[in-house]
Amino acid sequence: FMGLPGDGDRLELTYNFGVDSYEVGTGYGHIAITVDDMDATLERLADQGIEPERPKYQVREGGSFIAFVRDPDDYRVELIERRRS
Questions:
Q1: In order of start, what are the domains of the chain with their CATH numbers?
Q2: From CA 68, how far away is CA 78, in angstroms rounded?
Q3: How many angstroms separate the CA atoms of 53 and 56, rounded?
Q4: For 23-49, what is each residue's pLDDT tens digit?
Q5: Pick from 59, 10, 61, 57: which is nearest to 31 by CA?
Q6: Which residue has the higher pLDDT, 17 or 43?
Q7: Hey, which residues are catalytic here?
Q8: pTM value?
């Protein structure tokens, strides 16, 4: 993860092991962004006809909620609502 000091936003870079080369567009897995309120975000997206791939779910570690949607080019976008302690 990369981010600026004091900024809550982070960029996660990943590497796909076992892949020798990429065609244009295949080297991209997904992008993840944080949202303040998952339910409100999913409701706004649903109003625009965008539905999650599956219902939001909570990860064990940290209790964050996660959902995946597809952008207009069919790329996956991960939405993360981090639970604040």
A1: 30-81 (3.10.180.10)
A2: 4
A3: 9
A4: 766 667 888 888 999 999 999 999 999
A5: 10
A6: 43
A7: 78
A8: 0.70
